[in-house]
Amino acid sequence: DYHNFATELARADYYEAACEILKQGVIVYPKDTDLLADYMMYAHKCGKHDIAKEKYNQLKAIDRIDWSWRSFVFSIDYYIDVIKGQKGDERKATETTIEGLIIEFKEQLGNEEKAYLAEADFLEAIGKREEAIEALKKVVDDNTVAVCTQCCLRYVDRCLEKGDYDEVIQYSKKGITMTEEQESVETTAFWYFWALAADHEWFNENLSLEEPDKGSARKVIKLYDTMLRLEPNNRYASTASKRKRMIASFASIEIPKDETSHDVSQLLQMIKQAQN
Fold first, then answer.
1. Cβ atoms within 10 Å of 76's Cβ, excluding its own
2. Which residues of 227-239 are buried (b: 16+ CB within 10 A; e: fewer)?
3. Mean pLDDT for the chain?
4. Model confidence band, residue 261 (pLDDT cutoffs 50, 70, 90)
């Protein structure tokens, strides 16, 4: 209850209030690694750096076998934030601490893909972006973790940023094939990125043609339709609806009126939600 209440407050950026809840929580449960990790991170977020360091030291004193994934992730995130602005030996010492935490994370929770996401975060933080991307790819390719949707999605996102559309399509398909009882990422994201990549390739091949390829255009539209039927978040839905209409219009493909009406009602719903 302490953890859940503090987490909800933190999600609303009420870090100081979250710290007050956790202050009481660690009195009742002084060895609870999740509470200590929460307290450390939220204290750091609201500028209570002495308390954050104190809570990390208390957490560090507990055997790693009792650490949860949250303990490792928050500790690594904490030090990634601390490293900003550091130089020389101080920075090297912090990097060594983070590297040690990542090694222990993998040793204790080897089937937890968050260990590999944390490693990618660290590599990006120290300017090794390409190494971070390759590390994510390796997790997926080597089946290091059987179901690694978060690593796969992060890799897809980075490939899209680089304009590597073939990789986006290939690994979006891999992400879709991974099934989870409780989704750790929004599955619609893979359909969305696949559609965006296919969309780019279609326009790249057809934009200068007088008679664009309607067959391949319909395939891209089908990808967008599949994603839209899965009730994606508003940002995905808005972009997908717009891109779908662009392709249909350029390829002279008529979209059924009921679908156009759906797009309008979806827009009105988004406006209503924004007003609330």
1. 24
2. bbeeebeeebbeb
3. 91
4. very low
Chain segment 135-190, per-residue pLDDT in tens: 999 999 998 898 999 999 999 999 999 999 999 999 999 999 997 767 777 889 99
- Asked whether the beta carbons of 25 and 44 are under 8 A apart, the reply is no
Q: Which two tokens stand for residue 169?
A: 């399509």
* DSSP conformation class of 5: H
- Gap between the Cα atoms of 14 and 221, Å rounded: 42
Q: Is 111 exposed, middle or buried (0-12, 13-18, 19+ CB in 10 A)?
A: exposed
Q: Find the range with the poorest average confidence among 27-41, 83-97, 156-170, 255-269.
A: 255-269
- Per-residue confidence band for 255, with pLDDT thresholds at 50, 70 and 90: confident
Nearest to 27 by CA among 39, 45, 43, 42: 39
DSSP 187-236: THHHHHHHHHHHHHHHHHHHTT-SS--HHHHHHHHHHHHHHHHT---HHH
Q: How far is CA 71 from CA 79, 86, 97, in A?
A: 12, 23, 14
Written as six digits, the tokens of 55 are: 């809570």
Tell me the C-alpha distance between 97 and 79, whole Å: 8
* Exposure class string for 34-44: b at 16+ Cβ within 10 A, else e: bbbbbbbbbbb
Tell me the pTM: 0.86
CA angle 182, 132, 64 (to 5 degrees): 60
Residues 6 or more apart from 48 whose CB is under 8 A from it? Answer: 19
Separation CA 237–CA 172 (nearest Å): 17
- Integer distance in angstroms from the first to the last C-alpha of the chain? 28
